[in-house]
Amino acid sequence: MSIFSVTTSIPSKSGFVWFMAEFEQATLREIRDVLKADGLIICQKLELEHGAGDSRVIRSRQEQLVGLSGVLTITPAHFRVIEPDDR
Fold first, then answer.
1. CA distance 39 to 44
2. DSSP letters along 9-22, please?
3. What's residue 17's pLDDT?
4. Closest residue by Cα to residue 26 from 53, 2, 52, 56
5. Strand order in 80-82's β-sheet?
6. Segments in the chain forming alpha helices (H)
7. How far apart, in whole angstroms, are the C-alpha atoms of residue 12 and residue 37?
């Protein structure tokens, strides 16, 4: 499992809608290969809350389909994401 930031093509007041997601695929290349082959990918959208320092704590997960046409970028997380038990 790996955690990445997904930026969508859905506009918002401050730019575009984005969210953190957990993927079964371990690397960006593996995610790209699934998107290229299938046109979509299943992930777990993460609802996060602020933790200590620069960390974010997972509050909940929601299964999500992400379609190739709705994705602008998928990038590595720029902060530490931890499970609630790891606080």
1. 17
2. EEEETTEEEEEEEE
3. 92
4. 2
5. 71-76, 2-12, 15-23, 40-50, 55-67, 80-82
6. 28-38
7. 29
Ranges in the chain, pLDDT < 50: none
How much is the pTM?
Answer: 0.87
Q: Which pair of tokens denotes residue 64?
A: 């999500």
- Residues ≥6 apart with Cβ < 8 Å to 62: 44, 45, 47
2: exposed, middle or buried (Cβ count in 10 Å: 0-12, 13-18, 19+): middle
- Sign, CA dihedral 68-69-73-77, equals negative
Asked whether the beta carbons of 46 and 58 are under 8 A apart, the reply is yes
